[in-house]
Amino acid sequence: MPRIIMGVESSCDETGVGLVRLHDDGTVELLADEVASSVDQHARFGGVVPEVASRAHLEAMVPTVRRAFGAAGLTLSDVDAIAVTAGPGLAGALLVGVSAAKAYAAALEVPLYGVNHLVGHIAVDTLQHGPLPTPSLALLVSGGHTQLLRVDDIAGKITEIGSTVDDAAGEAYDKVARVLDLPYPGGPPIDKAAREGDPKAIAFPRGMTGPRDPAFDFSFSGLKTAVARWVEGAQARGEDIPVADVAASFQEAVADVLTAKAVRAATDSGIGTLVISGGVAANSRLSGLAAQRCAEAGIELRVPRPRLCTDNGAMIAALGAHLVAAGCEPSPLDLSANPALPVSTVCV
User: Fold this and answer.
1) What is the topology classification, in CATH, of domain 3-128+308-326?
2) How far apart are CA 39 and CA 94, in angstroms?
3) Which residues are annotated as a binding site?
4) Domain covering 136-303 in this structure, CATH number
């Protein structure tokens, strides 16, 4: 059985390379996790520019690989298998990572696994908390995705039970940050500002929570618009904008809906473990409210540490290790990127 798995992630604006060791008992040990981010290059545009991201991946790939192997004290000849994000993501960015991984796999004559970025966000939790109980429920919250997923088999059976019908939670954070003149990406500055604010100051709407709305789908577009309209109204009246109160009230609305639906989904399904992953999982109010509500419902909550929540190569290597352990067939070397890869497809 292969022992050292290399993971390559390039779906958006982070170039990630991770190295893990798969042990005989199926546990996965993190050896290295190196990331090169191009976020500063996108900040002035208020969002990720695909062409800029692709060029940044191209420039960062080899240096990031070298740093990962240096951190792990390994060489390329130690690699037994390679996993790479095949989708979803930005087409050009994905192609850089897939091309690099194919080249390394061909040169080293090791199997290649083209994997799903979203499932990687779930698999990364096993690096910190050990094997994932099955079934489990995963709440994936990032800049591009907000989904509730039932996990029956991390290597092969993931079922979507709910998703956003418009903006993802992370997108709403970025857009609200822009309204409040806070830096991009919006998650950390809003979280910081919210700590000084009153979450009950403004009664922002909770999207998709009406009696006729789908129980486990999400919507954050209306919330984003409500914040913008509130700020515009205050400005029209010549009032100073209470940034901390707006940030806290907005963040409370997001965390309230996410945690309420996740806990209800777990309870209704009889599932005892909830994993929250993705970049927004690092948000202090989301994790805090989730911990409170999961404790009240008797549900085990697992949240990876913040560095593992954001896009990284370690999560792809971890998923690759689970595929190897399950005896899954490797991907062909003519593997291509799929920007719209469905979450139900774990390995291409």
Assistant:
1) Nucleotidyltransferase; domain 5 (3.30.420)
2) 16
3) 117, 121, 140-144, 174, 187, 191, 283, 311
4) 3.30.420.40
